Amino acid sequence: MRFSKKLDDLGTETAFAVSAEARSWSEKGRKVYPFHLGDINMETPEIIRVATNRFMNNGKNGYCSSEGVIELREAIAHDVGSKRSIDYDVENVVIQPGGKPTIWKFLASVIDRGDEVLYPNPGYPIYESQIRYQGGIPIPYGYTEIQNGFAIDIEKLSSSIKPNTIALIYNNYQNPISASSSKEEMESLAELCIENNLWVLSDDAYYEIRYSDDPPLSIANIPGMKERTVILYTFSKRFAMTGWRIGASVGPKEMIRQIARLNINDESCTNHFIQCALAETMLDIDSDANLILSKLKDRRDLCVESLNSISGFSLSRPESTFYLYVNVSEPMKNKGYDDIDKFRIDALRNTGVSFCTRNHFGTPKVGEDEQYIRLAYSGISKIEIQEGLSLFKDWIEN
Ligand SMILES: Cc1ncc(COP(=O)(O)O)c(C=O)c1O
Q1: CATH number of the domain encompassing residue 373
Q2: Which own/partner pairs from 148-153 qualify as long-range (CB within 8 Å, at least 24 positions apart)?
Q3: Would you say residue 249 has pLDDT above 90?
Q4: The whole model's pTM is what?
Q5: Domain count of the chain?
Q6: Could you give the percent of the chain with pLDDT greater than 90?
Q7: Is the CB of residue 130 below 6 angstroms from any atom belonging to ligand 1?
């Protein structure tokens, strides 16, 4: 008996390992302040919960179409399209059990063995894992810290493109660093994709998790991009639905047909009654989503203020996502640490504050000498933020 060698190529989402450590620390009776996982400790809007129960109790308990319930595909085409000034219709949308499945189904649809795929690093770790598992070669691109956040190193990215590069994964409103592209940066990326005939996966998991009044930017609506871009859409973050597992792939019709074939081979269909409930409610719940957003914004402000009060910390206020990517090089040096994971574990044991580090978001590149941690504020109350970061401050400063 043996396991497939292919499994050696599969990575993981190491933030879940940090959760397990935090859980085991709390099972020992210790207080944990959970800044590690991008989960949300708020309720899904009531209108969705009520509609879901109704459809579950009224016959929507059987299989449905592998592409998804038509009314939900229509609603998503309208919502995603109108928020990006793109005309999408039902055939541009295929429903998925969450946002994550779009990553592997997109890659499985485009990769032949040995093809190269550009992906952000630091970035969501599943990109690297899935590119390799699907037989591709992951080629990382990075970010540089600028005055008010981070910018993509476009020159380096451009020099990594080769004849066998087939796709770019792009996560604007980025996890873990919360980077938002300027219009110019996005246009440069689009130009490179068009020139080199690349597919694009636009991971829009945080497209609606934005605190600025400026309209969001989408790479898909730049001329020449709609026909090569697949949008990862998810209900997880916007409506506090991480555990419901529902999202969609939105993109060119011929690509959507391929992804639907993968659906048939994988989950058959996504949960029928949840789809019906969202089809009925999703276009009328912007105010519920705004309530979630305003709580997140309060937490962001509190976290930024508390962290900036700690000696050696200096961070700007990200306009999107619910993550803070914090440079801890100086505090680590002051406390005599050169190993970021030892710093993380000691922080947990001494203060209960649990977070991820740069190492949880892709293999660090040679020459990276600054040290970063990522704090998520989506799953922790304001009182716990205050308490936890005050203990963290005492620990760092003493
Ligand atoms: C950048 C990014 N993409 C995709 C996902 C997956 O989303 P979902 O939970 O809807 O599968 C996440 C989840 O944290 C994420 O951060």
Answers
A1: 3.90.1150.10
A2: 148/316, 149/177, 149/178, 149/179, 149/180, 149/316, 149/318, 150/174, 150/177, 150/178, 150/179, 150/325, 151/179, 151/181, 151/182, 151/185, 152/120, 152/179, 152/181, 152/185, 152/189
A3: yes
A4: 0.97
A5: 2
A6: 93
A7: no
Identify how many contiguous H helices and E strands the chain contains and give both numbers: 13, 14
pLDDT in tens, 339-381: 999 999 999 999 999 999 999 999 888 888 899 999 999 999 9
Both 236 and 371 in one domain: the answer is: no
For 206-222, the pLDDT digits (tens) are: 999 999 999 999 999 99
Q: Does residue 303 surpass a pLDDT of 90?
A: yes
Structure tokens at 93: 């949308």
Chosen domain end from 255, 285, 315: 285
Mutate to test the pocket of ligand 1, among 16, 130, 203, 378 (most ligand atoms within 8 A of CB): 203
Domain that holds residue 132: 46-285
Cβ of 236 closer than 6 Å to ligand 1, yes or no, is yes
* Nearest alpha carbon, ligand 1 atom 8: 99
Domain match, 254 and 292 both: no
Based on the domain organization, do 61 and 193 belong to the same domain? yes
For residue 205 and ligand 1, the question of a CB distance below 6 A is answered with yes
CA-nearest residue for atom 2, ligand 1, is 205
Query: Are 197 and 90 part of one and the same domain?
Result: yes
> For residue 237, which atom of ligand 1 is closest to its CA?
10
Does residue 239 share a domain with residue 153? Answer: yes
